[in-house]
Every structure is written in C-alpha cells, then in structure tokens.
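2024-03-11 09:14:02 INFO worker-7 job=invfold-0412 stage=load source=structure_tokens
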C-alpha cells in the first residue's frame, strides 16, 4: 500500500492534526511513458506552510484533497517505456508526502547516490543549498569585508549563507534560538558571533557584535528581527528577503517593518528572491559546494526523523525550532 498525507483543510495559524488526513491507497501502476518511484526521504520546508494558503503566489496552492506537496528523493522501482529513466535510477523532484509516486518524469532529475548520501540532495546540494548560494552571492551581491547578519542562522539555508560569507572573507553574525544553536554557529561553523533571539535583546546584540553597522542582512525570519536589523544599516546596505518564518502562521496581517526609512537614509536596498529563478545556474552552485565539501570548508547537518505517520509532529519542528539543520522525514 501507498501511505499518503493529504491536505484536508486550510489552517488558520499553526497547522493542527486535522489539517491533513493520513490515508493508504493501492500502489499505482505506471502507464506508458511513466515511472513509479519509491520515495526514501521527504523534505520538510517552511515554504510548505505558504503553499497551503489559497492566495496568489509564485506557485499555485496545494488543493484540498491533494497529496501535500514536498520535495523528495527516491528510487525508480517500475518503468513503463520511459524515454529517459530506468529501474534503479534515483530521482529528486516534487513527489509529495507519500511513499510512492507515479510520474512522467517532468520536473524530476537523476541524482547519483554514490556522489553523496541521499539526504544531502534535499539539503546542501538541494533546494536550501541553492537558495543560500544564489541568495548571498547574487541577490546580496556579497563583497569581501562585508559585515553580514543572517537570521534563522542554524537552519538549512542560514547555516550555509553564513559559511559562504565566511569563505568570501566577511564578518558574519548569526541570529538563532537558544544557547546550543548559538554555540554551534560559532564553534562548529566558524561564525564570528551569534545572537540568541530567544534569550537576548536583538538590538543590544546587534550593537555589541556589529558596532559599525551591517552591510548585508540575509533574512529568513521577518517580523521584529527584520525591524531590528533595519536599525543598524550602513551606507548602501543590502537586505535579502528570503523568508519570514515568524509570520507564516500569523492569523492577522503579517507584521511589516517600521524602521524602513533606514533604507532611504542609507541608500539601502531590500530585495525578494525565489530560488527557482536560478534553476538554470544550479550546476554552478553544485560544483562550488562539491569542492568546498571535498576540501572540508563547509558543513551541512540534516535532522532526519522517521515515519510518514509522524509527518505532522515533525513538520511543526520547523516552527518550534526543535531540530538542528535541514529537516527531513525518512519514509522507507
Ligand atoms: P530552517 O531554518 O531549517 O527551519 C526553520 C527555523 O526557523 C527553525 O529551526 C527556527 O530556528 C526558526 N524559526 C521558526 N520560527 C521562528 C520565529 N518565530 N522567529 C525566529 N526564528 C524562527 O528552514 P530553511 O529551510 O532554512 O528556511 C529558512 C527560510 O528561508 C524560511 O523562511 C523559508 O521559507 C525561506 N526559504 C526561501 C526560499 C526562497 O526561494 N525564497 C527558499 C528556501 C527557503 P530557531 O531555533 O533559531 O528559532
């Protein structure tokens, strides 16, 4: 049987157990030109919360009754005259929160499990890795010597953003929740300093660690943290709006920045990004990461939990912060 997680209702606030239905269906047969993929790992991403909203976005919302959209890696177990893929190939794509997916292969690409463990294809050499690479290098237009702040710093994207900025000769300060995560940023990943937003005042932390202000703020969190960073901009500072996880479960309008006139005074820019815009440049990032990994210059951590039945509880770790690194669910 194929175990699946289906969107049952649109959540108001934090998703509840009634948000999704867990169901078992027959394993589908691939039609002519299709393949059947047995999924091994499912990526749990903050963006999934956005895809549940019935609003205009960069991608259509998940429909009620549809399998919850998610990135996956898995292995082809049946192929029916597929022109490109065969049994035994490993594919990365949008297989959804289910154990088996039938597809014509559109949007899927072949990965080599001998090159890296499968979870890495959802992490550093997957979507979060691409986001960090193009976000900090192309959108922020990073320069050597920049003073860089990154929020959500111990997460999948933030941890890579900070490490890339260090590799490029910048001073890097991370913002994360809790002592252990801050210790990890400085002692394991080589950040210059970290601010524990759950136990410290952000404004005092920024004043202490960035007395000369900020050149780049890479924001994954939004809300109060974005506002605090705006108050410390240097001339021509760049802010990358990558995400705003603090606002994703808001039941009223998201909190906007009140310190935005700092952009005017400092001739700063604030720019949004969507990683998919860089899809044709992914090979460049994969090559760079492969080299840095080989040379031991960059680290990526995956927080892997087991069992598709545990999807709901595991997904909520994105918002509670009870995980370190890229959140992944092992489903077979
Ligand atoms: P992640 O950081 O691995 O996981 C989310 C982390 O956010 C949690 O571990 C938690 O860490 C922190 N967090 C949760 N609620 C928070 C709050 N209220 N205030 C402050 N921090 C909070 O997730 P990710 O995959 O790296 O994604 C990071 C951001 O990038 C998300 O906003 C995501 O939507 C965005 N993103 C954007 C794109 C794009 O193309 N624009 C692509 C990928 C991801 P703490 O323990 O530190 O609180």
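2024-03-11 09:14:09 INFO worker-7 stage=emit residues=332
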């Amino acid at each position: 049987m194929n175990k699946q997680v289906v969107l049952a209702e649109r959540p108001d606030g934090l998703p509840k157990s009634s948000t999704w239905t867990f169901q078992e269906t027959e394993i589908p047969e691939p039609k002519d030109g299709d393949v059947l993929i047995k999924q091994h790992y499912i990526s749990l991403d903050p963006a999934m919360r956005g895809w549940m909203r019935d609003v205009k976005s960069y991608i259509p919302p998940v429909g009620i009754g549809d399998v919850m959209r998610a990135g996956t890696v898995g292995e082809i177990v049946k192929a029916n005259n597929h022109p490109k893929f065969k049994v035994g190939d490993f594919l990365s794509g949008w297989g959804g929160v289910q154990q088996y997916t039938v597809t014509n292969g559109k949007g899927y690409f072949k990965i080599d499990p001998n090159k890296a463990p499968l979870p890495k294809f959802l992490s550093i050499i997957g979507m979060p890795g691409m986001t960090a690479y193009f976000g900090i290098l192309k959108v922020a237009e990073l320069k050597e010597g920049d003073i860089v702040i990154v929020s959500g710093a111990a997460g999948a994207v933030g941890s890579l953003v900070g490490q890339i900025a260090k590799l490029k000769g910048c001073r890097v300060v991370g913002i994360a929740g809790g002592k252990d995560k801050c210790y990890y940023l400085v002692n394991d990943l080589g950040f210059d300093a970290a601010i524990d937003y759950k136990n410290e005042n952000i404004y005092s932390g920024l004043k202490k660690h960035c007395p000369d202000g900020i050149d780049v703020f890479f924001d994954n969190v939004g809300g109060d943290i974005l506002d605090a960073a705006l108050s410390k901009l240097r001339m021509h500072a760049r802010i990358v709006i990558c995400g705003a996880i603090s606002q994703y479960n808001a039941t009223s309008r998201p909190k906007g920045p009140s310190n935005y006139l700092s952009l005017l005074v400092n001739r700063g820019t604030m720019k949004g990004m969507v990683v998919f815009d860089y899809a044709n440049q992914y090979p460049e990032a994969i090559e760079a990461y492969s080299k840095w990994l080989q040379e031991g210059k960059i680290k990526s951590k995956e927080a892997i939990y087991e069992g598709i039945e545990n999807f709901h509880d595991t997904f909520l770790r994105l918002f509670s912060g009870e995980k370190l690194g890229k959140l992944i669910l092992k489903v077979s």
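2024-03-11 09:14:09 INFO worker-7 stage=report msg="Residues 45-47, 127-128, 131, 152, 154-158, 176-178, 181, 220-221, 242-246, 273-275, 318-319, 321, 323, 326-327 surround NAP (CB under 6 Å)."
2024-03-11 09:14:10 INFO worker-7 job finished
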